[in-house]
């Protein structure tokens, strides 16, 4: 089976799961602080727990080489903060706006297009010069267990490669901590018509593992997929140099298809337009912030949080922290600050 068909199939299943679970990292991060609601966050933690063990097992069996995202501190700090702010403005994370296109949200499509165009500009396009501002990756020659991919002997930093200890030790410690949080914290109650937080998290984690085994070079991601879709569809504006669709591009296309199918079957599809036209400008700005942030930081919420944290990658830990801080800051600025003034 060709790579693009595999990517499409994984994407369709992922789109169904995202639509039926309502998993959005913008909401998950925001809700924990401002609504004291941990429902979506615990769903995400279940997925990360499963992937933490699954990725390591797949690498130990020699099925994949673990490929954590490069650690460029300033890039993950600045990019992470911009991405976190952008999620709030766009009304969803990278995966959230993608699956909501399949549900009929026109604003999600606008945000996604601006997200993809800006990310493409940062990664090899007109804005690629900004990457020089953030320096080069910090790497190591340590490759404990030989499970990490290496470029001329250089390995991207994870906790295990940084400390040069058996990756299983770090994976098991991380898994135990995640399991304790999942089991011993009270879960916010929600009435759901689709997948609950447990089964939604399990499904997301399993799909992440399948994605890694299928793509080989990494697990799931959204940013690179939007870049590929836009570049391949437009032919890089040069028909003499066509850009082929790839696995991750088809993953993103599959998410939209899968979400559309799930929304139709659950009678939740509806073409939705905002009441205030100014919303289009807001979500477009959010898409630009997310595209810039993900382009600089080396990944979005799926690339760093869902796929990067199970590697225990230093880059993804730092990016996640600043995704959270950017999200909380922008939500406070747009909503909580105004409430405080009124009170």
From TrEMBL:
<keyword id="KW-0813">Transport</keyword>
<dbReference type="InterPro" id="IPR007272">
    <property type="entry name" value="Sulf_transp_TsuA/YedE"/>
</dbReference>
<feature type="transmembrane region" description="Helical">
    <location>
        <begin position="44"/>
        <end position="64"/>
    </location>
</feature>
<dbReference type="Pfam" id="PF04143">
    <property type="entry name" value="Sulf_transp"/>
</dbReference>
<comment type="similarity">
    <text>Belongs to the TsuA/YedE (TC 9.B.102) family.</text>
</comment>
<keyword id="KW-0812">Transmembrane</keyword>
<feature type="transmembrane region" description="Helical">
    <location>
        <begin position="165"/>
        <end position="185"/>
    </location>
</feature>
<dbReference type="GO" id="GO:0005886">
    <property type="term" value="C:plasma membrane"/>
</dbReference>
<keyword id="KW-0472">Membrane</keyword>
<protein>
    <submittedName>
        <fullName>YeeE/YedE family protein</fullName>
    </submittedName>
</protein>
<feature type="transmembrane region" description="Helical">
    <location>
        <begin position="312"/>
        <end position="334"/>
    </location>
</feature>
<feature type="transmembrane region" description="Helical">
    <location>
        <begin position="197"/>
        <end position="214"/>
    </location>
</feature>
<feature type="transmembrane region" description="Helical">
    <location>
        <begin position="6"/>
        <end position="23"/>
    </location>
</feature>
<keyword id="KW-1003">Cell membrane</keyword>
<keyword id="KW-1133">Transmembrane helix</keyword>
<feature type="transmembrane region" description="Helical">
    <location>
        <begin position="285"/>
        <end position="306"/>
    </location>
</feature>
<feature type="transmembrane region" description="Helical">
    <location>
        <begin position="105"/>
        <end position="126"/>
    </location>
</feature>
<feature type="transmembrane region" description="Helical">
    <location>
        <begin position="245"/>
        <end position="265"/>
    </location>
</feature>
<feature type="transmembrane region" description="Helical">
    <location>
        <begin position="70"/>
        <end position="93"/>
    </location>
</feature>
<keyword id="KW-0997">Cell inner membrane</keyword>
């Amino acid at each position: 089976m060709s790579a693009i068909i595999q990517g499409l199939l994984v994407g369709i299943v992922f789109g169904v799961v995202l639509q039926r679970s309502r998993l959005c990292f913008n909401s998950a991060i925001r809700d924990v602080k401002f609504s004291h609601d941990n429902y979506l966050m615990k769903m995400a933690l279940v997925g990360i727990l499963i992937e933490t063990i699954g990725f390591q097992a797949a690498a130990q069996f020699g099925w994949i080489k673990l490929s954590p995202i490069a650690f460029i501190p300033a890039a993950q700090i600045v990019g992470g903060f911009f991405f976190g702010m952008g999620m709030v403005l766009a009304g969803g994370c990278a995966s959230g706006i993608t699956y909501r296109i399949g549900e009929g949200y026109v604003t999600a499509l606008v945000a996604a297009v601006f997200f993809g165009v800006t990310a493409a500009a940062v990664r090899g396009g007109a804005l690629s010069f900004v990457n020089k501002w953030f320096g080069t990756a910090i790497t190591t020659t340590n490759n404990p267990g030989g499970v990490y991919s290496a470029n001329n002997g250089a390995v991207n930093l994870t906790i295990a490669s940084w400390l040069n200890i058996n990756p299983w030790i770090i994976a098991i410690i991380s898994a135990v901590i995640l399991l304790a949080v999942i089991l011993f914290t009270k879960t916010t109650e929600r009435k759901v018509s689709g997948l609950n937080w447990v089964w939604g998290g399990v499904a997301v984690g399993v799909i992440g593992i399948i994605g890694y085994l299928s793509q080989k070079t990494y697990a799931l991601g959204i940013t690179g997929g939007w870049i590929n879709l836009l570049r391949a569809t437009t032919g890089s504006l040069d028909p003499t140099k066509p850009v082929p669709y790839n696995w991750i591009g088809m993953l993103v296309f599959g998410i939209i298809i899968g979400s559309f199918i799930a929304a139709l079957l659950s009678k939740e599809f509806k073409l939705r337009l905002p009441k205030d036209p100014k919303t289009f400008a807001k979500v477009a700005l959010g898409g630009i912030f997310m595209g810039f942030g993900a382009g600089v930081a080396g990944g979005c919420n799926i690339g760093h949080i869902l796929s990067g944290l199970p590697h225990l990658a230093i880059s993804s830990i730092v990016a996640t922290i600043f995704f959270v801080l950017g999200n909380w800051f922008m939500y406070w600025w747009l909503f909580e600050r105004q409430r405080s003034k009124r009170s």
